[in-house]
């Protein structure tokens, strides 16, 4: 009893110091081993959770500490006859800060350890594994969710740390399929070996049902896909499947390359390129916006118009939308979209209102209807 009271007092003192920003706790629990030691003798789950959360402030670079955290997560999964859904969900909450630490374990000195833990988990991973749900009403499902969270944390650590040692096990996880496969694909991309990208591209070309996450490879995917697209041996069906995997524009230096694609005679390619561009256009991309709006391809012009609505808080783009609406030689679809956008104008409302009033009398009933609708919306904002 005396020992238990000493333990309670020790944990209480640490948590009190922590909550009042005093340095005693900082000095006595400044590493993983001391924090885990305090957590081991804590008498309540709430105190234990606070101690685990404290770990997020500690730099973890010792492979043995990572192994200790891994073992602790595994211990939360142990079968206990006394467990019910409520208690296992509490264990799930306790595992969250521990799993978060594993996901951040990216330093080179931890590569071998992360690989070992990944191999351990992968060896017991069934094909097409789907995990579980923390909100489920079965204890096993909650346990599986905890397990899945730790597995994905280890996979992410391997990718973010560019852990080439872990590539074989990551590739094996992809082969097994299921939920972890997508996370593993992204981590393989972050590691960035060209042979992996090449293999994925081959799979996309050969398998109409391929679902592969290439996002980890970043913008370099663009060049690899377009090199293959221009390969004369590919059938049109393979080309269309391949360009569906063109990445979003995450590097503005690639914007001119995407703009060039909008001029392609391949309507699928030009539409996909325009859609990728439209997602990222910002007010300072005026040159690109005007270039898209002047495209001879109506589909490209229509897709580019979708970016204008996000810019109705910029005077120059309200004026641009008004000029597009007022120009009767424009395709009516473009004018309808311009009228729609003007209804969301946050600045230069007089310019927007004047253009909409004029368009409300347009001979084209679709343009007229949209102008009247947008005018009501705009007036309702005043």
Could you characterize the architecture of this molecule?
The chain has 382 residues and is mostly helical. Helix content is 66%, strand content 0%. It has a domain at 307-382: Leucine-rich Repeat Variant, CATH 1.25.10.10. The protein has helices at 2-19, 23-28, 32-41, 45-54, 63-76, 85-103, 111-123, 139-160, 167-176, 179-191, 194-206, 220-229, 236-243, 255-261, 267-280, 286-293, 298-305, 315-326, 332-342, 349-359, 365-380. Helix 4 runs parallel beside helix 6 (85-103). The radius of gyration is 28 Å and the shape is elongated. Mean pLDDT is 85; it is low at 1-13 and 15-29.
CATH architecture group name of the domain at 307-382? Alpha Horseshoe
Flag low-confidence runs.
1-13, 15-29
**The named CATH superfamily of the domain at 307-382:** Leucine-rich Repeat Variant
Helix fraction by DSSP (H/I, runs of at least 4): 55-70%
Backbone shape: elongated
Topology diagram in text:
Blueprint lengths: L1 H18 L3 H6 L3 H10 L3 H10 L8 H14 L8 H19 L7 H13 L15 H22 L6 H10 L2 H13 L2 H13 L13 H10 L6 H8 L11 H7 L5 H14 L5 H8 L4 H8 L9 H12 L5 H11 L6 H11 L5 H16 L2
Helix pairs in contact: 3-4, 4-6, 5-6, 5-7, 5-8, 6-8, 7-8, 7-9, 8-10, 9-10, 11-13, 14-15, 15-17, 17-19, 18-19, 18-20, 19-21, 20-21
List the defining traits of the structure above.
382 residues, mainly alpha, Leucine-rich Repeat Variant, elongated, 66% helix
